[in-house]
Amino acid sequence: MKKVLALVSWTVLLCLPVLAMQHAQSPRVVLMQFKDAIALGALSAGLLTNLFMYVCFFLWTIIVFQVFRYVLSGVYGVAHGVIDAPRPRFMVAVAGVLALTALHQESDDRARVVATTIPAEAVMSPLLATLILKDLLQRRQVQCLELPIGKAPVVLDEQALNILDGLLQTVAENGNNYSVSNINTEDDALLKSAIDHDDSLKILYAAVDRVEPLVLNDELHDVDTRMGIVVRLFGYPLVENHLGIRAEFRKTRALELATWLVLNRQRSRRSAARTAMWEQSVSDSTFSTIVSDVRRALGELNPGTHPHDWLRPTFSDELPLSISVTSDAEILQQRLIAFRDEPHKNLGHVLQCLDGVRDLPFAATNYRWPDLDGTTTRLVMLVLTACTEVAQFCVETDQSEGAQRAVAAGLRMMPGHDALLETQQLIGRRVALA
Question: In angstroms, rounded to a whole number, what is the distance separating the alpha carbons of residues 22 and 240?
């Protein structure tokens, strides 16, 4: 029994260094974190954690070396009748081989996961990926405030979306150590260097900065809102049926998933939704529970239908949302197109849509994905464009009530907008003169 216990003890003692290294990142990652720390003038939590793991590893290596040294020295002394036995330096080599094996396995595993889609520097440095995401968010905020009426950022193509998803995945895998919200630095040397030397980042930034005239999608499916379900995006997201009854989601992530699906029909895949929505890795069972909650909530809005009619189950990565689920943004686009063709006939319809504008898109939520891919900016510019065109038409045709409704909707979206405030003052003067 003593021999068995001794064998188990030695096995645990030998395995502890390897287990410690499984929780530490590869030396290349640590070196990149040192580079980030020098550039930013601060040590990250991830770097400190990795340093702690390496210290533990070397302490255990010393312990193992000393124990085997004394054991083998004793055996050698008993066998040869000498006191000063040679030191078993080969044990250091054994411990080193174990460590290198763990490091090599860890490095290979990480490389296989992300090497094909993420910029090379971002793979090695989650902190750098976080800084890039923060910079992209700031650029989107500037776009939203400075774009003229009738302009909007382009929809990111598949290549740019893949690069963005890769950055999000890098940050998600290190969510406990890095967060976009808690990094505050004015030093852009690291970012500039990364963008200048990485072709994939150049592609992403070029796509983010590209602006074009606001294009209304005239190929949107024409949904009968009297029978379908509407996801209201202008304000805190709400999901309603034709009677105004709101869906009740048991999980807040289920509401976010429904919102993401209605805005991303062209890429409605499970993997894309998980990468966009979660800052940390989420298990398959958790995601399946959220999908089921979406089906249940949508099905309850129309009791005569089956939940699968709204979000069809598949055995693949696809997650198809029914075309009977639409958004207030899609409806506004349809009504604005009709208004441009026949303004007198469709003025009431587009004003009815503008009356439903409650606040900025996704207000009172912490959704990050619509800001990063430009969805929030495009929705803001859609409303401001519609309000400006409708208000201008109403002023020209002497319909002060319609003009006031349009301007009020635009100011709910963006208080302090100069053009809308000027229009409001013009309407006020006309009303006073009348």
Answer: 48
Task: Give the structural domain span for 159.
Answer: 123-213
Structure tokens at 315: 């055995």
Structure tokens at 183: 């990094």
Q: Which two tokens stand for residue 398?
A: 């002497």
Q: How many domains does the chain have?
A: 4
Cross-strand pairs, 211: 153
Rounded to an integer, what distance in angstroms lies between the CA atom of residue 161 and that of residue 86?
A: 61
203 three-state secondary structure: helix
Provide the total of helices (H) and of strands (E) in the chain, helices listed first.
18, 5
Q: Which residues pair with 311 in a beta bridge?
A: 321
Mean pLDDT of the chain: 79
Distance CA 426, CA 394 (A): 12
Interval 36-50 mean pLDDT: 57
Cα gap 311→297, rounded to integer Å: 11
State mean pLDDT over 390-410. Answer: 95
pLDDT in tens, 237-282: 999 998 899 999 999 999 999 999 999 998 999 999 999 998 777 8
**Same domain (yes/no): 16, 103:** yes
pLDDT digits (tens, 9 = 90+) for 291-329: 999 999 999 998 888 889 999 998 899 999 999 999 999
Measure the CA–CA gap between 195 and 77, rounded to whole angstroms.
63
Report the distance separating Cα 142 and Cα 139, nearest Å: 5
The number of residues in the chain equals: 434
User: Is 232 within the bounds of a domain?
Assistant: no
* Beta pairing partners, 234: 361
Tell me how far apart the terminal alpha carbons of the chain are, to the nearest angstrom.
105
Domain C-terminal end among 113, 142, 173: 113
Same domain? For 164 and 87 the reply is: no
What count of other Cβ atoms lies within 10 Å of the Cβ of residue 306? 9
Contacts of 283 (CB under 8 A, 6+ apart): none
Spell out the alpha helix ranges (H) of 320-399: 328-341, 343-355, 369-372, 375-396
Closest CA to 75 of 88, 62, 63: 88
